Fold each of these.
Amino acid sequence: SQQGEEDPQALSIQEGENATMNCSYKTSINNLQWYRQNSGRGLVHLILIRSNEREKHSGRLRVTLDTSKKSSSLLITASRAADTASYFCATDGTAGNKLTFGGGTRVLVKP
Amino acid sequence: NAGVMQNPRHLVRRRGQEARLRCSPMKGHSHVYWYRQLPEEGLKFMVYLQKENIIDESGMPKERFSAEFPKEGPSILRIQQVVRGDSAAYFCASSPSQGARTEAFFGQGTRLTVV
């Protein structure tokens, strides 16, 4: 199975609600990153959290990392219709040669 | 500073033809990655290149696929004798430093359709 598995696969919420998605991975990492992809477009980097960090904020985004459980979560607060997209976590692995992506969480924010 | 530029955005090829996908990294970036994405799936790593060197090609199919990043010009992903299963979106990313230690910047992708 993949390094980096997101849960849930799909999420539908109302505008203004919070959206939480999780990512689990299998091997040791140096960092974990979250990306957003709008339909038919390229990926946009959201946030990078290093293995020695536990929590990081960026605007309405909050990312946590638990290396003992090999898991991370992405919280989007006060969601907007424009947040509708697929969200992917990606890990680098100790070799750091490449990012390995999970299957993504498809988020639909209804106005 | 232009972002990562991929062309063409859409490419249609008949089975057996060759597909050439081009990627110009961001200015100052010397590390390029190619990923493939099937509909409703995540990105699958294909190859990591630095100028004139292939660093990691562990995700490349053994046959028909090749990649290069010459000293001058864009990185090229080449698929020979395409088959229907090659239909996918191919994304290129670049970064300023080694591997995945920092943020990667993605292009808009090339959507390859094999008919």
Note: Residues 16 and 79 of chain A are 5 Å apart (CA to CA).
Amino acid sequence: GAVVSQHPSRVICKSGTSVKIECRSLDFQATTMFWYRQFPKQSLMLMATSNEGSKATYEQGVEKDKFLINHASLTLSTLTVTSAHPEDSSFYICSARGVAGAGANVLTFGAGSRLTVL
Amino acid sequence: GNSVTQMEGPVTLSEEAFLTINCTYTATGYPSLFWYVQYPGEGLQLLLKATKADDKGSNKGFEATYRKETTSFHLEKGSVQVSDSAVYFCALNPGGGADGLTFGKGTHLIIQP
């Protein structure tokens, strides 16, 4: 079946630094990827939708300069949290949808990346 | 706006007990409804879905019926197993597809032997 890998699974950084999280579709080409954020005991909140080769579409209230999303290839999307602060500490989850093969027309989720900003 | 409300956990049951996890939604139009499951250390997996009123989604012994009149999509299983222990998320997509889902907060289910 379709598999999405996220890396790193956990990251701790100092306030003011930038952190990059990768989301890879391992056995299908992901034309669309979604980034979610989950606070403890809260819902997953959609942050942005990215289509390969084009700019990401951000949800209302999500700072695009703060959360940089790049979807440069059909198997990789990255989320960079720039100048991270403690309030950015959260669980970030990506999902991917392909148009053919194992990932066709289904949403496959990564296992998530837990960011802790000190 | 769109929202999903599901019962808070944790829900603790004994093996072979009957399970119900309530989920209600608010949405414009005719949403598709989903249940996802997240096992420890893994990503979310689609458990079942329903795309229109009165549809019943089912998988691995779990069922949920799309009730438009009560705006509900309650998850049920007749006899749970220890391996069903996980976090369950109810979700909707107002456009009918699987993009940009709105999730509930998740319900942590613990099944004891």
Note: Chain B has a mean pLDDT of 91.
